[in-house]
Amino acid sequence: MNTQLFFSCFLVFILNITQLLSQEQLGLRLDNFSGVNGILLNPAANLTSPFRFDINLVSADIFVDNNYGHIRNTHLFHFIKNSQDPDNLISAVYVPNDIRTEDSWLLLDYFDNEKLKYASASLHLMGPSFSIKLNNGYSFSFISALRAAASSHRVPSNTGFYHIDRTPFEEAIDIAPINAAGMVWSEFGINFAPAFFTYNGKLSFGITAKYLTGYEGAFVETPRTLQITQFPGDSILLENALVNFGFTDSNTNTDIDPAVRKNGRGFGFDVGAVMTIEGNGDGYIWRLGASILDIGQINFSKNAQLHQINQPVDTLLGILPIDDYDGFADLSDYVSLLSSQTLGNPLASRTGNRFSIGLPTALSLQADYQFYPDFYLNATLVQRLKFNAQTIGRDNIFAITPRYSSRWISGSLSLLLRNYQQLRTGFSVRLAWFIIGSDNLGSWIGKSTFTGTDIFFGIKINPFRTGPWNFSSGGGKGAKCYDF
Question: According to the model, what pLDDT value does residue 317 have?
């Protein structure tokens, strides 16, 4: 293993600190008939739904994306089909773009540019959840979910593989501070939202309080500039190293039987407001919303390790022979070796047995305009709010989504800018109580540069009877299942 490849693998570990597979599930949350799913984007959203009640049986989203590496000339189905054979997985680092290749090959390559790097992955599995609206203008909801997320953002461009590969031996590379975090957790939440009449519509407020259980978690940060120097013989010298990291070891320790264990707990909440401006016809003309999502953290206090590598200024330690890092079964063994090679003692890096990881907090703004009956244009902004290094960073998103939305069928196409770098096309379709879609349609069709994918679906139950909801009667008009 050469040092360039090892260092790139190390950076991929930082970028994807837990092996997880979403992000915003726009097709599940923007629809007028999204019901309880809509409160995940804005806790007050359910008060603009025409349903008196809505039940989510199951919905899920799997998402992964990055701008560090890619697979040449493939799409999701081509990747799934050919990745079963390890012989098809080929490093394309030194393979020219114009070389003739087999159709089954999956050529792994890296981006060579000056952009800040990022990687993020998430899984959101929403279990039985429901919402109900009362005639006095209140809405109550219950949500349950299993979530997993990992991310790193604003990683310096000089960590790219080709930059490292072009750097001569014995020439130091200065790496600006990097941080990454990830965890797996469950949440149970109670949502409350009141609505008030205004001169030309309604103003709604909402809050969701959540109890969180943490199962696995990890983080790593380098708070100061780190110097890395490559040497012949597959060795790397670390200088000025200050690395803080922590992880749960309930499934990385061979002395403990693998199992799902409750290693932490915490609390979180979402807050939001929605204002609707109504016209002369049915529904609203404008729906404007603002929310802050996933405020809170999980404290891991069981099966947890906290470490710090803080090198003295004048030291001969920090020389890492790459071959020494082959063949370990436990993550703790790697950490002990790293501690020995940088601090002179396999136990010196251990500083505690507990740590905290923050939820992927974000500010979201939404604007929805009905320009023709049942036809809407939506703009949604999601901006991450990250207050410390031990927090999962949410992707920044700006999306423009035109859609058709009626009781029995809805469809949308979205143009989505992720992290102000990558432009994606998304879609969603809803037939009655079933929803399916993706925020990255290009990963499904047409062979191209493959950096990740996304898919979501949902199965729900809600009433046949819909129509304008008000504080006094809650009545509405009937809708037959064959009326579109």
Answer: 64
**pLDDT digits over 154-178, tens only?**
999 999 999 988 999 889 899 999 9
Q: Counting Cβ atoms within 10 Å, is residue 361 exposed (0-12), middle (13-18) or buried (19+)?
A: buried
Domain with 412 in it? 3-68+111-461
Please check whether residue 39 is in contact with residue 45, taking contact to mean a CB–CB distance below 8 angstroms.
yes
Q: What is the pTM of this model?
A: 0.88
pLDDT for 477: 40
CA atoms of 272 and 208, how far apart (whole Å): 9
- Whether residue 76 lies inside any domain: the answer is no
Question: Are 313 and 240 contacting, i.e. CB atoms less than 8 angstroms apart?
Answer: yes
Domain membership flag for residue 416: yes
- Has residue 95 been placed in a domain? no
Q: Is residue 484 in a domain? A: no
d(CA 239, CA 308): 15
Q: What is the DSSP letter of 197?
A: E
Q: Total structural domains in the chain?
A: 1
Contacts 24+ apart (CB under 8 A), 410-413: 410/31, 410/32, 410/33, 412/26, 412/27, 412/30, 412/31, 412/437
State the Cα–Cα distance between residues 239 and 312, nearest whole angstrom: 9
